[in-house]
Structures are given as structure tokens and as C-alpha cells.
Write a structure and sequence with these properties.
The protein is α+β, with helices and mostly antiparallel strands. Helix content is about 35%, strand content about 25%. The radius of gyration is 22 Å and the shape is globular. The protein binds flavin-adenine dinucleotide. The site of flavin-adenine dinucleotide has 36 residues, from helix 1, strand 8 and helix 8.
Length: about 425
């Protein structure tokens, strides 16, 4: 595909998940000639079902908001945080955020959601090859040469001016080039499965994600995918996994059965999917872009999913990566500066959410979170961040700083009831 002298495409995108599709749709709309390579044939299973309100504006810009609205996904209006022993609960109600356009979002089946996006990339004018895996790449100052393998056509080579790696956790570029650094602090393992018959919430809260906080700092997610089917995952700090590691099913059953309040939700349930396990938790790259390559979505960084940030940030970074390519195509002399700006923006977004995610593993933070006071608008500010607003107003940021101040005082003087033990 294409001769070696003049690139056949402006942009090659590796991966057709949310980041890759978002990049491809945006690039095609900007007039770029785009090729998307996707290893699988869609629809395919993917974990990561709970969206955030901040994705609404992105879905609108990508031209898929109506299709997502009409797909019949469960409407999510907030997040319910519970203590496993039933002692405390705290609702995050997205309508309390003043900085997101619409407070409701969705719990999506990713096979359907990702297919809507990839199809939109095709409709926008991108060439999309499924069952096509990127195999090797050479990047020089004047372009990218990529070898891929298609299930029927075999090995082929393509030239393009830029490459966006949106290959998710498999990290086509980052793993090849050793760009990825694990987050030393956020090391967990997730074991997950779908169940029929789990007791659901009712009324306006029926579509909430439930995050059940375990005393030893792990947590359980319950995500309703339909009135009858629930995605359930147990996230355990690696240091706590011990012998259950060999028995993923045991980790789910064992956790649920350890807490009567949780076990009661699971009476008369049956599993509707295989049990799966994910261990590649929380990493970031040395850089998100340079030369003629950019990393978007999980191919760049991944953050522990407790606040459901992954898909929203994948859509965001995919769009920003394509916009950066557009600017670099129009202004070749500023290419490195444009890519550096893109990279800096991704680091800043990662740091903003990482601070909150890391706090969730701090017993003092959880104590305060489960006994919140909205004096000075602190709960509203947290709600804005947990709705996925990656650049909240200065006043909101200051209120979040204030919350961290209160947590520090609680750690020192115990100003709230101590309901969590140390991770140990
Ligand atoms: C346990 C767990 C729970 C999560 N829960 C949530 C949640 O509730 N909400 C949320 O928003 N996020 C969640 N996430 C995160 C979310 O799954 C990801 O952030 C999101 O899927 C990232 O999208 P992406 O497009 O970057 O990557 P992906 O969705 O992984 O897409 C990458 C695509 O690239 C393709 N690919 C890979 N290698 C190649 C190659 N060499 N050539 C061609 N194609 C290739 C893959 O087949 C895949 O389709 C969770 C993650 C985990 C691990």
C-alpha cells in the first residue's frame, strides 16, 4: 500500500478503540488522509464500561452523540460509594457539578460503543482495516514506515507523515521503545465478570456505578449494563493478593462472601461471562509525542480505574493528538513545539486525576470522603472532578486543594471518625 517515496497517508492510527477512533474521526474532519489499523474484528469485548459526563461534549464533537443516546445504554447520573460493611455511603450526584454541560452519562457495552465510534471513523472518510495488526515501524525525520499484517492479505507496508499509537495497554510503540514507566504506588489487580440477577439500585440512582470500598483499601465495582446484567470487578492492591492470585474466581466470590451487605446483593445470581483478570495498572510514558509519533489513550498512560476516567481521557487525547497532527502538517517548522505542547497537556491531565486516584488509596482521604461536608463547596468541586472535568475552574481547583488540606489535618489530629484501616 503506497510507494516508499511519497507517503500514501497523512496519518496512520494503530488501534481502533475510543482513542484511535476519536483520532481518526477528528483527523478525517480536518482533511487528513487517515489509515486505521485494528488488530481485532469488531464488535469485540473490552472492559471499561462506565463513562463520565465530560465525555458528552467529546461525543457531540465526534458526531456520535445521537447514536450513543439511541443505543439503549443504561443512563448513569452519578456514583455511589459504599463501605463494604454498610457503615457509610456517599453519593456523587453529577448534577451537583456546575462545570459539565449535561450531568447524565452512560454505562456502555464496549463491543457496541467502540463499534459506533469505529464506524463513524469510516463514515468520516478514514480507511479502516480490521484484523490488521501493526508489526514493526521505522520513523525518520521525514515520515513513518509501518509494516502490518492483515488476516487475508498478509504482510504489507505503508508510509505516512505521522503515526498515532492508540493500541491501548498493549503499547505498540511504548513497549517496543521502553517508554513506559509503571506507577510504583498504584499497583493493583482487577478480576471481573458479568452476573445476572444482582440486586440493583432503584429510581434515579438505578444507573449509578457502585464502588464498594473494602477496609484493606481494595474496592469492588458494580456497573449495571442492563436492568438484569451487572459488570462486577474486584480490585485488590497487589501486595494483598497472596494465594487468591492463582484463583481469580475465588477472589470475586471470596470478597463478596466476606461482607454480608455485599453477599445479600448476590443471592440467586449467575455468572454470564468468563472471569477475566487485568494486572497492567497505572503507568505513564517518558513522553507522549516527538518526531512524527504521538501516543493517545492507554497506549500513552493508564490510571487505576476507580474514578472511571479511561474512556473519557482516551476520547480526549485521541482528539487532541489528531489536532496536533493537523497543526504540525500545516506548520512543519513548529512540529517539535506542537508535539511537546500535546505531550505537556497529557502529563498535566494525568497528574490532575492521579492525585485524586492515589488519594482513594489513603485511609484518611476515604474517611473524609465518606463523611463529607459541602461547606465551602468542597463536595461540588470533587463532583466536578469526578464528572471528568479535566480543566476545572481555578476556584474548583482551590476547593480540591482545601479538601486535601482537611485530609492532612484528619491524618494528624483525627477530626473525622476513623472508618478505614491502613493498607499495610
Ligand atoms: C479493570 C479495568 C476497569 C476499567 N473500567 C473503566 C471504566 O469503568 N470506565 C472507563 O472509562 N475506563 C475504564 N477502564 C479503562 C478503559 O478500559 C481504557 O482506558 C480504554 O479502553 C482506553 O481506550 P483506548 O482506545 O486507549 O484503548 P483500547 O480500548 O484498549 O483500544 C486499543 C485497540 O488497539 C488494538 N490494538 C492493539 N495492538 C494493536 C496492534 N499492534 N495493531 C493494531 N491494533 C492493535 C486493540 O485490539 C484495541 O481494539 C478500565 C480498565 C481496566 C483495566
Amino acid at each position: 500500500m503506497g510507494d516508499t517515496a511519497s507517503p500514501a497517508f497523512d496519518l496512520t492510527v494503530v488501534g481502533g478503540g475510543p482513542a484511535g477512533s476519536s483520532a481518526a474521526i477528528t483527523a478525517a474532519e480536518l482533511g487528513q488522509k487517515v489509515l486505521v489499523l485494528e488488530r481485532e474484528r469488531f464488535p469485540r469485548f473490552h472492559i471499561g464500561e462506565s463513562l463520565l459526563p465530560a465525555s458528552n461534549g467529546l461525543l457531540e464533537k465526534l458526531g456520535v452523540a445521537d447514536q450513543v443516546r439511541e443505543a439503549g445504554f443504561v443512563v448513569k447520573r452519578g456514583a455511589s460509594f459504599w463501605m463494604a460493611d454498610g457503615r457509610a455511603e456517599h453519593y456523587i450526584d453529577f448534577s451537583q457539578s456546575r462545570e459539565v454541560d449535561a450531568p447524565q452519562t452512560y454505562q456502555v457495552r464496549r463491543d457496541r460503543f467502540d463499534s459506533i465510534l469505529l464506524e463513524q471513523a469510516r463514515k468520516s472518510g478514514a480507511t479502516v482495516l480490521e484484523e490488521t495488526a501493526a508489526k514493526s515501524v521505522e520513523i525518520s525525520d521525514d515520515g513513518v514506515t509501518l509494516v502490518y499484517e492483515n488476516a487475508t492479505r498478509g504482510r504489507e507496508e505503508v508510509r505516512s507523515k505521522f503515526l498515532i499509537d492508540a493500541s491501548g495497554q498493549s503499547g505498540f510503540l511504548a513497549k517496543r521503545w521502553g517508554l513506559r514507566q509503571g506507577d510504583r504506588e498504584l499497583k493493583s489487580v482487577a478480576i471481573h465478570c458479568r452476573y445476572r440477577g444482582v440486586q440493583a439500585l432503584s429510581g434515579d440512582r438505578a444507573g449509578d456505578i457502585r464502588v464498594v470500598s473494602l477496609p484493606e483499601m481494595g474496592w469492588v465495582w458494580l456497573i449495571p449494563l442492563s436492568p438484569d446484567e451487572m459488570s462486577v470487578g474486584v480490585v485488590v492492591p497487589r501486595s494483598r493478593l497472596s494465594t487468591t492470585e492463582a484463583l481469580p474466581g475465588g477472589a470475586i466470590d471470596g470478597t463478596i462472601n466476606s461482607y454480608p451487605a455485599l453477599a445479600a446483593l448476590f443471592e440467586d445470581t449467575e455468572a454470564t461471562s468468563p472471569i477475566r483478570r487485568e494486572a497492567d495498572f497505572s503507568y505513564l510514558p517518558e513522553s507522549y509525542a516527538s518526531s512524527r509519533w504521538l501516543l493517545a489513550g492507554d497506549a500513552g498512560s493508564f490510571l487505576d480505574p476507580v474514578f472511571s476516567t479511561g474512556v473519557t481521557l482516551a476520547l480526549k487525547s485521541g482528539r487532541e493528538a489528531a489536532e496536533a497532527v493537523g497543526r504540525a502538517l500545516a506548520n512543519g517548522r513548529s512540529r517539535e513545539a506542537i508535539l511537546k505542547r500535546y505531550s505537556d497537556e497529557q502529563f498535566s491531565t494525568y497528574r490532575f486525576f492521579r492525585r485524586l486516584v492515589s488519594a482513594f488509596y489513603d485511609p484518611a482521604f476515604r474517611d473524609v470522603m465518606f463523611q463529607p461536608s459541602n461547606r465551602l463547596g468542597i463536595v461540588d468541586a470533587m463532583t466536578t472532578a469526578l464528572a471528568g472535568e479535566w480543566k476545572p475552574k481555578l476556584a474548583t481547583r482551590r476547593r480540591i486543594d482545601l479538601l486535601f488540606g482537611i485530609v492532612a489535618i484528619h491524618r494528624r489530629f483525627g477530626i473525622a471518625e476513623k472508618i478505614h484501616t491502613d493498607a499495610g
